[in-house]
Amino acid sequence: RASAPLLAVAGLNAWYGHSHILQGVSLEVRAGEIVTLIGRNGAGKTTTLKSIMGLVPRREGRVTFAGEEILGLPAHVRFHRGLAYVPEERRIVPGLTVEENLRLGILAARTRAREAARIEAIAETFPRLKQRLRQEAVTMSGGEQQMLAIARALMAEPRMVLLDEPSEGIMPILVEEMFAQFAAMKRAGTTILLVEQNVDLALDISDRVYVMDQGAIVHHDTAAALNADPVIQDRYCSV
Ligand code: ATP
């Protein structure tokens, strides 16, 4: 079933208390794709990622991953099935070095036996981290810590990563490096669903894009088509 999507979200609704935040979100990500979700602040992008990961208390609809329904499963079970999530807040552990933080990414994973090999592979993908493996992680710059959060998620060799605004608050030069790394992750076979305000850079590395507004998907297209459509970009993507 090569053509079946790796992740399929259909009619997803989510609530915080009495606020009905997601109102029928549907999207698909095929294996090997980078798909980006864009939209204004408060459109519901973070809530979509959290709902896919099982981190929003009340949710309804269908979320299938690798052909299996996962909507009712707890987040850690989704993780064991190969779905990783890097939240906007990076959760780097103070007092631990870069390498020790990386090891945390594999503690619970089935790939534990390959820990050393994973650290080596990740050091090749993230040269900035390779130079800093013995440095206390929280002494790194914000951008470097964001790379560490992403690298830590990759330690368990997930099939798919959900990335929430990785470029937020990061120097432009590091942002470009980070986006080049997303392209490298894709070449290495990782599927990516990205939430990003940095639309230009995101479009450059993405296959397809979904545009969100007020808790619903209002538009979707290939990144190339959206790149050539300033009207949609102006209407839905200005912060
Ligand atoms: P941003 O780019 O600002 O993060 P977003 O598109 O990711 O925006 P969400 O964070 O998903 O948007 O927020 C969608 C709506 O849900 C907003 O109106 C927000 O205020 C609300 N919301 C988010 N988290 C909570 C929460 N824990 N409790 C109540 N309401 C929430």
TrEMBL record:
It comes from Methylobacterium isbiliense. It holds the Pfam family ABC_tran. It comes from the Bacteria. Keywords: Amino-acid transport, ATP-binding, Nucleotide-binding, Transport. This is High-affinity branched-chain amino acid transport ATP-binding protein LivF. SMART domains: AAA (SM00382). Belongs to the ABC transporter superfamily. The gene is livF_19. The keyword ATP-binding applies. InterPro entries: AAA+_ATPase, ABC_transporter-like_ATP-bd, ABC_transporter-like_CS, BCAA_Transport_ATP-bd_LivF, P-loop_NTPase. The keyword Transport applies. GO terms for molecular function: ATP binding.
